[in-house]
Structures are given as C-alpha cells and as structure tokens.
Amino acid sequence: MCLPHPATAGSPGLSAYDALVLSHRPVAYWRLSHPSDGTESDRTGNGHKGTFHGVTSTVRLPNQDGAAVFDGSSGYFEVPTAKPFHISTTGAFTMEAWIRPHTLQFADENHTGYVHFMGKGTKSGSGGNREWAGRMYSKVNKENRPNRISGYAWNLDGGFGAGAFVQQPVKVNEWIHYAVTFDTSEGAYGKVRIYRDGVPAGTDNLVYRPGTDDEVVIRPKPGPAPVRVGTRDGGSSFKGAIGKVALYDRELSAAELRSHYAAMTGPATPDLDSDGVGDVFSAATRTPTVWTGRGGNRVGAGRAPYL
C-alpha cells in the first residue's frame, strides 16, 4: 500500500480541503488547479505525475480553489498506469472528483449518448484493458437516462460492465461531488456504490444481469491503460470542469465522503495570491491563514479562530 507524505492546511499550495483528503490516505491526488503548467504533481507524494493535453484554463470550485476546464472535444489529463490504480490490487477501490458540466447535451458522446469524464481502459476484445470509469449521459439519449451519472467496472475484454448510478436533476455550471466505491469481497459478486454530494445515491452488485443467459460476472484485473480525466479512451469527451481527483485503494466510508463535501462547501474564502488555493481560513487548524505575499499561505499565529 502506498502511504502519502504528511500534509497540513498550512503546507504551501494546499487548502483545508486538500489536507482533509490527504488525511484519508489516497494513493493518488491531483488537484487539477494549474493546467497551464502542462503537468500536475500527485500531492500524496507517491509520484504519480500527470500531463495535460489541450487543457489550459480554469474555473473556481466552491472553496475558491482552481479546477481544470475540458473542452469536450480533445482536452484530457493522463497519468501512466500504476499498481494502486487497479481495483484488483486490494479488492477495494474508490474514485472521487468534483465535476461541473458546461452543457447537458454533449457533442462528443458515445453511440447511445454518454461521455466518460474519467476512467482507465482504452480498448475492448482480445488484448483489452478495460477497468473502470465515471460516466455521464446527455439529457437526450437512446437509453432514456437524462443526465444520469454512474460508475462502472469491467472485465479486461470490455463488453457489458456493472455499476451503480444516480438519476437526479443536473444543472449547467453546477458543481457535483462524485464518488464511486468498489468492494469485490462483499456478497456473492462484490458491490459498487455511488455517492453524490456526500450522500449515498445507489448501489448494485458487480454482475450484469445475474441469473440470466446474459449474466456477466465482473472480476476486475490489472491492465496497462493510463488513468485519464476528461475522457477514458478518446471515444467521448466531457465538456466542463473537473477538479480534486482522488483515487484510493480502499472503500471510503459515507462519513469520510460527507466530510469532503462539507469541507468544500463551507464558507468560501478568497484566493488573495492567485495560487489556486483559497486563503483566509483553515478548517483543519481552526485558525485564519494569511497571504505572505510570496506565493504561499501560512497559519496566522495568535489570531482567534473563525467559527
């Protein structure tokens, strides 16, 4: 298991939200706050550096941290494969992100009307490498699933996958906290759960149409495909903003995910030094933070907490 280096809200470039996520031990964490730099460091310290392709602009998350804008046609973020990114490594896995669609009808969508906004797997069939993905449907689609948001896992050869979904209203430019967890040891087939805004929204077994002639049991295995954000395999592209992508080699609890949502949506703080991190208040230390004027935030000693 990869263990991240310690981080605090006072660490350079980290917000209180970042510090909270890192305290829950992700195997990789990309803020996606500075795409114009061309690359993005893994803030866990585990070294999973990623590269932006055709992505340069940002918008603000609810806490005023930055998030990358994907153009819905060619932009994406990519990280080489690694052992902690496979569901099969521990049998439990969580993918988490903040997403903000800039349209409800995607132009570059797959054949039935959906896009993958993140995932791992570039091809199906013999020699396939499908593993997992986050999906959002267009408002109008061939499956009558208006803006459904889901998370899936596949066998390496692709075909039918298994997942969980949330069917709730979605608005343009509305931030959504998305998380999907997998546990291959739970029950007869394993379980997948989806959360929206820190609230459990759906669960299902890791099997397609159990007990029928079409049954496909999902047994995740490691593949060589990279992790991508903004797309999975280039077959569709998400138009909107994505930030705070975290991967874990365990199943996060509902309480942990609720705490992430609460940390992001608490009182917004201004980004005084334009470093992509909200300033002024640290929820982790219960003290204000102060811009030093030198590109980093520091804890303001001797100041009363803002409650």
UniProtKB/TrEMBL annotation:
Ranges for domain LamG-like jellyroll fold: 91-255
The keyword Disulfide bond is annotated on this UniProt entry: yes
Keywords: Disulfide bond, Signal
SUPFAM superfamilies: Concanavalin A-like lectins/glucanases (SSF49899)
InterPro entries: ConA-like_dom_sf (IPR013320), LamG-like (IPR006558)
Protein name: LamG domain-containing protein
